[in-house]
Here is the input.
Amino acid sequence: DQQVKQNSPSLSVQEGRISILNCDYTNSMFDYFLWYKKYPAEGPTFLISISSIKDKNEDGRFTVFLNKSAKHLSLHIVPSQPGDSAVYFCAASAGNYGQNFVFGPGTRLSVLP
Amino acid sequence: DGGITQSPKYLFRKEGQNVTLSCEQNLNHDAMYWYRQDPGQGLRLIYYSQIVNDFQKGDIAEGYSVSREKKESFPLTVTSAQKNPTAFYLCASSIGEGGSYNEQFFGPGTRLTVL
Here is the structure.
């Protein structure tokens, strides 16, 4: 049973518009959440994170929102750019230990020019 | 340039053969990890090591073995006991316990195909 779910395998967005990627989790003990971006033939790269003491974290065009009661987090990219086209993984952990992170299956974002 | 290297990028193996995947990092990270990715699934942890000469099984360690003789290196051996070894393998490293968010830095991956 997947503890971290990304129910949209793919998403297409027009350049300049907002991209919203969603992630749901089932384990109420998760308290650290990360987003990674992956280009083809490369390893994932860290994008942004949030701990459960916050409900929002912003870094430039990227904002992550956490709704603990709904066990849901989302990544907003505004404005979307063609270079944002990649696979996005969310990951969750109980405690800040690398070996505890559980990864979702990923969402492929395509930003159309 | 600091980073993680994995070799080879593509690897083909005959059934019944052991094969070793290389992972090297020059980030001076204490912790290193091996993950496996299958289509439609998230990354699954095979083994991890928090310090030299010590490593722990992850969620799917059966059929795999590792060593950590040097801080920089964490090779993964896929043995003939692994029933379904065809997959994409990712190595990662992180500062270790106590880091702010302990995000992991990933290598480019090795795609293993068993013929």
